[in-house]
């Protein structure tokens, strides 16, 4: 059977003619499209899809020509379509990822704001001297010795006031923020 005879027979619905053309061109088409995809499995899928289209559109075949060029064109177009589909999927995945990340950042920002508010409330509720010392150390960055000198108290008193502040902060956050609890241990 020649290629042209197979085309004529296939147009008449002959599945054996289709099988003949499939066996004749399959390996060549896979090799051809693999030069683009660099993935044999993906290439085989593309070629199989091309042969499905070839069978479905058999009525459009020219009975005077070899189907070789037509098959190569179908395979190439299927490859291009697979790239477009892959790009769309990647774009969709990127959009989903970006939305999820943005939502996560919003959630984290909201949670952080709540923690900051709670921390401010706890600090405001500290005894005046304790509050003054923790603000000087943790917010203004002043060392214990310098705080002691500025306030005319001993370094041990500064340490004692810091310990009181940390204890109150730990108590306030131990229920709902284990990470912060660990930070002030």
UniProtKB/TrEMBL annotation:
Pfam families (UniProt xref): Sigma70_r2, Sigma70_r4_2
Xref: NCBIfam families: Sig70_bacteroi1, sigma70-ECF
Organism annotation: Allomuricauda ruestringensis (strain DSM 13258 / CIP 107369 / LMG 19739 / B1)
Gene3D superfamilies attached to this UniProt entry: 1.10.1740.10, Winged helix-like DNA-binding domain superfamily/Winged helix DNA-binding domain (1.10.10.10)
UniProt family annotation: Belongs to the sigma-70 factor family. ECF subfamily.
Keyword field: Sigma factor, Transcription, Transcription regulation
Annotated protein name in UniProt: RNA polymerase, sigma-24 subunit, ECF subfamily
RNA polymerase sigma factor 70 region 4 type domain mapped to chain residues: 117-163
InterPro entries reported for this sequence: RNA_pol_sigma-70-like, RNA_pol_sigma-70_dom, RNA_pol_sigma70_bacteroid, RNA_pol_sigma70_r2, RNA_pol_sigma70_r4_t2, RNA_pol_sigma_r2, RNA_pol_sigma_r3/r4-like, WH-like_DNA-bd_sf
Residues of the RNA polymerase sigma-70 region domain: 21-88
GO biological process: DNA-templated transcription initiation
Molecular function terms from GO: DNA binding; sigma factor activity
SUPFAM superfamilies reported for this sequence: Sigma2 domain of RNA polymerase sigma factors, Sigma3 and sigma4 domains of RNA polymerase sigma factors
């Amino acid at each position: 059977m020649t290629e042209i005879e197979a085309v004529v027979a296939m147009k008449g619905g002959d599945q054996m003619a289709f099988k003949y053309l499939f066996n004749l061109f399959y390996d060549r088409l896979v090799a051809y499209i693999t030069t683009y995809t660099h993935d044999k499995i993906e290439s085989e899928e593309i070629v199989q899809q091309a042969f499905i289209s070839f069978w479905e559109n058999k009525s459009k075949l020219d009975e005077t020509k070899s189907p070789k060029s037509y098959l190569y064109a179908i395979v190439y177009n299927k490859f291009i379509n697979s790239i477009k589909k892959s790009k769309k999927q990647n774009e969709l995945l990127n959009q989903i990822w970006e939305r999820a990340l943005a939502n996560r950042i919003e959630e984290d920002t909201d949670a952080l704001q709540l923690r900051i508010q709670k921390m401010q409330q706890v600090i405001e509720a500290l005894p005046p001297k304790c509050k003054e010392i923790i603000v000087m150390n943790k917010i203004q960055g002043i060392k214990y010795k310098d705080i002691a000198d500025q306030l005319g108290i001993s370094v041990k008193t500064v340490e004692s006031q810091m310990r009181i502040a940390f204890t109150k902060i730990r108590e306030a956050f131990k229920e709902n923020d284990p990470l912060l609890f660990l930070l002030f241990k």
